[in-house]
Amino acid sequence: MVRYSCYSCDTPECEKERVCDGAVQCYTSHVRDSEGHVRRNKGCAKHLEHAIFYCSTPSYDGRRHHEMYQTSGQYAFSCCRGHLCNNETVWPELPPVPIVSAPDPLPVPVSPENASNSPSKLILAITCPILVFFLLLAFILFIMHRAHKKRMKGHHRVPVDFHEGSADLDELGLRATAAGDSTLREVFNDRSMTSGSGAGQPFLVQRTLAKQIVLGDCIGKGRYGEVWKGVYNGDNVAVKIFFSRDEDSWKRETDIYLTTLIRHENILGYIASDCTSVNSCTQLWLVTHYHPLGSLYDHLNRTSLSVEESMKILISTLNGLVHLHTEIFGTKGKPGIAHRDMKTKNVLVRMDGTCVIADFGLAVTHTIANNELIIPQNCRVGTKRYMSPEILDMSINVNHFESYRMVDIYAFSLIIWEILRRTRSSENNKANEFALPYYTDVNPDPGFDEMRKVVCIDNRRPEILSRWEADPVIKQIVKIMKECWHENATARLPVLRIKKSMKNIILSDPKLHLIFDEIC
Fold it and tell me: What is the mean pLDDT of residues 345-359?
């Protein structure tokens, strides 16, 4: 395949053009987002799939103009094949925003026959619809009556003895409890009430679940929905309410929680999903265990950590990530799962100081047996601040599951950095103020191009504090962190290697060994 050199520049520095090599096609882009901000870029499409995405064709030999309108904005691409062929000074023209107007009503033709209908035709036109209506009503009533008889007949087949126990009720998928007792633990049939999510679909997943939950306070908001504290049969639960436009994310997250063998103490516990209507608006509910301390992001903002507390957070989060990434083989095995949106806001802190991983709306699953890679088809994208270099420069192999696992490893390295900033070192027992990764390099809400310049072009990483070198435990963690945010994805440590290195750090310190002997 012939490769070309192309002009490359980013807004607003397109006056200073650079040259990139190894392109399948050269492109010039003109983008206007939903807020009216305009961005212009030139560059190289180095991979065939990127050329297909940018130019809608992998084999066009001349110049091709491709434009599109979406509700989130408009964009136009001009693609070409040739050495430095994207040297035009006039940018591709953006498509206009379409204005949709209601169509004019069609006139109803009046024929002489319609004007002079006979009385018999008029009577027929009135009686026929009425007759059809009553026939349909009778048919529906017959079907409902038949279904009711079958249901009652099925109930009578199973003898129910409320005094001898509930084994027979279990066969019906129901549970009987005394009035006033909590039924949430009964639902799980005396299973562990850790934050495990259950092996497959739990009991009592009904579309009436939303009517049994009393919502309290809103404890979190995001661009994709809200999280509310609720009470279900006397137990506190967390209710994640998705906007109707994010139904794909709700379905994907529900599918992940219903995956066989997903249960793990470091994965957020799942109770049920439901679809309900509030004030004529559709709401999609996902009900999970409630953790009062909130997210790791909130926890780090509130308090500093000792080395022991930081290690407990790191080890427990790492254990959850190991469980996700690992495929379990068997009659009912578990696929490998890559999270794709790891960050401190998607890690929740339990009362014992350990953590659970949440929010699987972007998760990718992979099964080795049939080499099936399932990528969610929704408009949601990950958090730009935590995007790995290969995503930002669009060099990721989207058909290889290991690529997505390495994306999680890079994001986990940034979580390590956030935790270490709030960790009190043994030298002076002081910690730094909480900060997000790259807080000195980018805006509070950075754009894709801004992150690409910092991470890929300038090859910057979050600051390494001098006080970390003085603490022997933190110094070893920093070494692991650096290997996890390497610009080359294949050079990053796999999750099992990270866990082994963390375990060696704990074993080398008698104090940590005593504390973490059980969880390692």
Answer: 96
Q: Is 33 a catalytic residue?
A: no
Bridge partners of 23, per DSSP, are 4
The full 3-state SS of 421-445, as one line of letters, equals: HCECCCCCCCCCCCCCCCCCCCCCC
Binding residues for ATP: 240
Choice among 341, 359, 408, 471 that is catalytic: 341
pLDDT of residue 101: 55
Mean pLDDT value across residues 71-99? 77
3-state secondary structure of 493: coil
Domains and CATH numbers, the chain: 4-80 (2.10.60), 184-289 (3.30.200.20), 296-515 (1.10.510.10)
Rounded alpha-carbon distances, angstroms, from residue 178 to 154, 166, 408: 24, 12, 46
Report the alpha-carbon distance of residue 260 to residue 258 in Å, rounded: 6
Q: What is the DSSP letter of 230?
A: E
Q: Interior CA angle at 402 toward 400 and 403, to 5°?
A: 70
How far is 203 from 245, CA to CA, in rounded Å?
28
264 Cβ contact list (under 8 Å, min separation 6): 196, 197, 319, 320, 323
Do 338 and 324 form a contact (C-beta atoms < 8 A)?
Answer: yes
Exposure on the CB side of residue 123, measured as CA atoms within 13 A: 3
CA–CA separation, 389 vs 51, rounded Å?
19
Q: The pTM is what?
A: 0.62
| pLDDT value of position 434 | 96
70 phi and psi angles, rounded to 5 deg: -135, 165
Q: With contact defined as beta carbons under 8 Å apart, do 334 and 327 qualify?
A: yes
Q: Which residues, at least 6 apart from 472, have a Cβ–Cβ distance to it below 8 Å? A: 509
Residue ranges for the known binding site are: 240
